Amino acid sequence: MTTRSVRALSGALKPLFSPRSPQGYVVAVCHQTHKSTYTAPPARYGGRHTVTLIPGDGIGPELAKHVCELFRFCCVPVDFEVVNVDSTETSEDDINNAIMAIRRNGVALKGNIETNHNLPPSYKSRNSLLRTTLDLYASVMHCQSLPGVRTQHRNIDIITIRENTEGEYSSLEHENVPGVVESLKIITRTKSLRIADYAFRTAREKGRRRVTAVHKANIMKLGDGLFLECCKEVASGYPEITFDSMIVDNTTMQLVSRPQQFDVMVMPNLYGNVVSNVCAGLVGGPGLVPGANYGENYAVFETGTRNTGKSIANRNTANPTAMLLASCLLLDHLKLHGYASMIRKAILSTITDSRVRSHRCYMQYVGGIQLLLLRPALYFDITLNMSSPLCSSCTLLIWEVRAPHLKWSSPSWMQSRALDLAHRGTRNQMTVRLYL
Amino acid sequence: MSKNVKTVTMIPGDGIGPEISAAVMKIFEAAKAPITWEERNVTAIKGPGGRWMIPPDAKESMDRSKIGLKGPLKTPIAAGHPSMNLLLRKTFDLYANVRPCVSIEGYKTPYTDVNLVTIRENTEGEYSGIEHMIVDGVVQSIKLITENASRRIAEYAFEYARNNKRTSVTAVHKANIMRMSDGLFLRKCREVAENYKDIKFTEMYLDTVCLNMVQDPTQFDVLVMPNLYGDILSDLCAGLIGGLGVTPSGNIGANGVAIFESVHGTAPDIAGMDLANPTALLLSAVMMLHHMGLHDHADKIQTACFDTIRDKKVLTKDLGGSAKCSEFTAEICRRVQDLD
């Protein structure tokens, strides 16, 4: 090799070794990025992430508003790209736009999109379309007993991992003979291995001891038999984790009598639907549990039980906890762990604080979270005599003192919130807590 | 008043089956119920043509009496023939599985005041057993829903609700995903509901039912659904009231045939030791008496059974006591006679 050609070669290799593009070097040398070294999605500019927000139907829009408000208050570096999906439209343009937005941003926060089951089969469920198109193969729900929430069972801590793209949800149905409908349930080796691997990896990462596969292989010998076989195969690669299996009807019976025996559960689509809803019911209901859908390249976060909540829409009574906890999962995914743990701690404190919980109005509840987020180093209480003419002027005086590191919105907003939440005492006296 | 003595085919079953069947027969004797029992065995035999079938004397007895009471049957592994329950179902076309779940006072569970009935379509749906491996690594299972079966189960559900003075029937489905199959089931339920205007009809998604069931089971009354959902939900409801050891079950077939059974296992570890709990079979037998119209005897036996459990003095091991099966049975017999 001549000197000239070596120089030319090194010149050609220079961009790869250039310190200015370390990403390029990594890509050139190592073709297969390992799943555990996942980097934040590309929609990041100037330190701020862009996340797709699909409000959905029913209580979705109000919950989305709560999340936006909370993020704004906490100064979370996330901008939402709102994509509305109209469930009454028969054309699939809306959902395709949403899918494209998620492909662009990599992450999404989603409300449930209603499916009118009286429409013909050509109208596919929008949620299902989203999941299968983006190949969000794992639906994960962590059901934990929360302190301060009264339920029939205590000390529940179950992670349900549900295969999200095949099984009974393939929407392959036909009517060969009038009055006889066949619906196909598809189980494939690839997807079963993939979800089993995901389950065991998650169990390992979170330090869990046991994975239970839920199935009905005594009846569906080929289909669920294949799923079970794949789980057993993957289990052999994780000797530190105990693997067992349980038939789905026995599982539901055990869940209502002794749910503490379960740790991580992995299952096909329909059983996952049933079991995750049972678990959510056991820990306190649909308003408390967040859910996450993970794929190879995308992640979509939503409430765990995927309810539209049509009957309680627009009444300001929907429990925002599930959506807010889902937004914390979103922040964890974006590696904004500081914000995530701060918000999560505030939410859990608010739930246990019965004074705030007794308020029927959840707008005040969200305000409670915001107040708790102030994380005061110092505060003092001022007791005002309401009948005193100095009262209003005193109030004005208080808001003159500001903490420079916190961004205040208009003083009147803070005034009304503080009055709502910090009010104690008799009718004539009011105590306002001032945080510094 | 002449009492028509009715014949019932008794299938004791395996494991603890014979003991609990004997217990039930003794209690019926104490209650002076007008029943004569015909004991039969249903171990599968190979008939002419190579097809598995139940013994002809069992079939003949059932065809004559139309009512059966069955203990737990052992599921054979590698015996070559399908499960006995499946065989019985196919032979008598048992299309409806009915499971009333009522909280038992004295047997405490985290859920109180449960009073619902699950009616499950028992012949088709996801359990049709039609599966193929299309290519290596891809399996398809076929879920079959037919108009006739759906209509039949819906009609039975509304008839049951009317006969037992229940106020509402809820159809459980997943028609948002399985639009055609569950859609057909739902349409048939709606059609049948038109003829029963006195009973409230609602529809609910399977996941919503599960979610609400574990939070507040008192909101449900009669639930009707296809095979798989029925399997899961009926066991879920059994779990709410205390498990399969205290849950009755009935299978209704075409041509007026009905087989009532206990749905727990054969418990081979305690078989023959006089430790079994006959409550499940007894409550199924009570269901049978109601089905036959012998309501007085049914109420008497049920009251005696519930009083015994509520008193907590004589209980079998699984109910939290230490008495033997025979002692528990004797206690119930005593109460039944006292109620006379």
TrEMBL record, chain A:
Pfam assignment, any one: Iso_dh
Name of the protein described by the UniProt record: Isocitrate dehydrogenase [NAD] subunit, mitochondrial
The keyword Zinc belongs to this UniProt entry's keyword annotation: no
Family: Belongs to the isocitrate and isopropylmalate dehydrogenases family.
Main localisation: mitochondrion
All copies of domain Isopropylmalate dehydrogenase-like, residue ranges: 50-366
SUPFAM superfamilies: Isocitrate/Isopropylmalate dehydrogenase-like (SSF53659)
Domain of life: Eukaryota
GO MF entries: magnesium ion binding; NAD binding; oxidoreductase activity, acting on the CH-OH group of donors, NAD or NADP as acceptor
Keyword Mitochondrion: yes
UniProt entry keywords in alphabetical sequence: Mitochondrion, Transit peptide, Tricarboxylic acid cycle
GO BP of this protein: isocitrate metabolic process; tricarboxylic acid cycle
Quaternary state and interactors: Heterooligomer of subunits alpha (IDH3A), beta (IDH3B), and gamma (IDH3G) in the apparent ratio of 2:1:1. The heterodimer containing one IDH3A and one IDH3B subunit and the heterodimer containing one IDH3A and one IDH3G subunit assemble into a heterotetramer (which contains two subunits of IDH3A, one of IDH3B and one of IDH3G) and further into the heterooctamer.
Gene Ontology CC: mitochondrion
UniProt subcellular location: Mitochondrion
TrEMBL record, chain B:
Chief place where the protein resides: mitochondrion
InterPro entries cross-referenced by the UniProt entry: IsoCit/isopropylmalate_DH_CS, Isocitrate_DH_NAD, IsoPropMal-DH-like_dom
Alphabetized Gene3D superfamilies for the sequence: Isopropylmalate Dehydrogenase (3.40.718.10)
Catalytic activity: D-threo-isocitrate + NAD(+) = 2-oxoglutarate + CO2 + NADH
PROSITE patterns named in the record: IDH_IMDH (PS00470)
Residue span, Isopropylmalate dehydrogenase-like domain: 7-332
GO molecular function: isocitrate dehydrogenase (NAD+) activity; magnesium ion binding; NAD binding
Single Gene Ontology BP annotation: tricarboxylic acid cycle
Gene Ontology cellular-component terms listed: mitochondrion
Named cofactor requirement(s): Mg(2+); Mn(2+)
Cellular location(s): Mitochondrion
Keyword line: Magnesium, Metal-binding, Mitochondrion, NAD, Oxidoreductase, Transit peptide, Tricarboxylic acid cycle
Subunit structure: Heterooligomer of subunits alpha (IDH3A), beta (IDH3B), and gamma (IDH3G) in the apparent ratio of 2:1:1. The heterodimer containing one IDH3A and one IDH3B subunit and the heterodimer containing one IDH3A and one IDH3G subunit assemble into a heterotetramer (which contains two subunits of IDH3A, one of IDH3B and one of IDH3G) and further into the heterooctamer.
The family this protein is said to belong to: Belongs to the isocitrate and isopropylmalate dehydrogenases family.
Function, as annotated: Catalytic subunit of the enzyme which catalyzes the decarboxylation of isocitrate (ICT) into alpha-ketoglutarate. The heterodimer composed of the alpha (IDH3A) and beta (IDH3B) subunits and the heterodimer composed of the alpha (IDH3A) and gamma (IDH3G) subunits, have considerable basal activity but the full activity of the heterotetramer (containing two subunits of IDH3A, one of IDH3B and one of IDH3G) requires the assembly and cooperative function of both heterodimers.
Protein name per UniProt: Isocitrate dehydrogenase [NAD] subunit, mitochondrial
Gene that specifies this protein: IDH3A
